[in-house]
Amino acid sequence: MSSMMMRILLIEDDALIGNGIKVGLTKSGFSVDWFTDGKTGLQAIKSAPYDAVVLDLTLPGMDGMDILQQWRNEKIDTPVLILTARDTLNDRVTGLQRGADDYLCKPFALAEVIARLQALIRRRYGQANPIVEHSLVKFDPNSRKVSLQGKDIPLTTREYNLLELFMMNKERVLSRSFIEEKLYNWDDEVSSNALEVHIHNLRQKLGKQFIRTVHGVGYALGKNEE
């Protein structure tokens, strides 16, 4: 099972379930920040550029439904997958009305959590067709394959994750801090020139102009047709 290198906010107070989800998602290539308390989780969404949230409803400090309502009131539109033991139709309807994007009742299979998160993230980035093309490069997040003019290009995990970030944000100039926040967990030590090294390697493999430097701002996708 492959997944995009995406950053997930997990808010779940059950140590066993939370740990199982964190370990499983991390193995599938997600980066996970896990909080066990409602009020902390509510604020955490502002601390990093998350791609999706896995939200338990019954939490100490603040109920998951109230967290969700507050985020949506504040126009925070990050996709939210609710996990809950409350499986009545009424609860599901309320969750969706408050702005949840998807709903899973406990007990659930980890594979289903992963598949649903991938679907939410693809929808968010408008990637219903999973193969992304830019210039002469094709990128398939499902098989984790990258090709240049039809020829497969092997990438390291970090290079792949970096390329994915650019391909998912084609029209944007990405600041250095945004890229580093996405690629590294809080507990990773990032050497100051690690990003330049990865970008240099991608240019070597995909074309010198493929990632352009936007001076004073960051990096953006360029072209490699010349």
Main attributes of the structure:
226 residues; alpha/beta; Rossmann fold; Arc Repressor Mutant, subunit A; 2 domains; four-stranded antiparallel sheet; 8 helices; elongated
Total DSSP E strands: 12
- Give the second-level CATH assignment, the architecture of the largest domain: 3-Layer(aba) Sandwich
CATH topology of the largest domain: Rossmann fold
- Main sheet strand line-up: 2-1-3-4-5
Main sheet overview: 5 strands, parallel
Structural class: alpha/beta
Tally of distinct domains: 2
What does this structure look like?
This protein is of the alpha/beta class and 226 residues long. The protein has 2 domains: 7-124, Response regulator (Rossmann fold, 3-Layer(aba) Sandwich); 132-221, Arc Repressor Mutant, subunit A. The chain contains 8 helices and 12 strands. A 5-stranded parallel sheet has the order 2-1-3-4-5, with helices on both faces. Strands 6-7-8-9 form a 4-stranded antiparallel sheet, covered by helices on one side. The protein has a 3-stranded antiparallel sheet with strand order 10-12-11. α2 (38-44) packs parallel to α3 (64-73) and α6 (157-168) crosses α8. The longest helix is centred in the middle third of the chain and has 15 residues, at 110-124. The protein is elongated. The protein starts with 6 loop residues before the first strand and ends in a 5-residue tail after the last strand. Residues 129-223 form the OmpR/PhoB-type domain. GO terms for molecular function: phosphorelay response regulator activity; transcription cis-regulatory region binding. The modification 4-aspartylphosphate is found at residue 56. Residues 129-223 bind DNA. Keywords: Cytoplasm, DNA-binding, Phosphoprotein, Transcription, Transcription regulation, Two-component regulatory system.
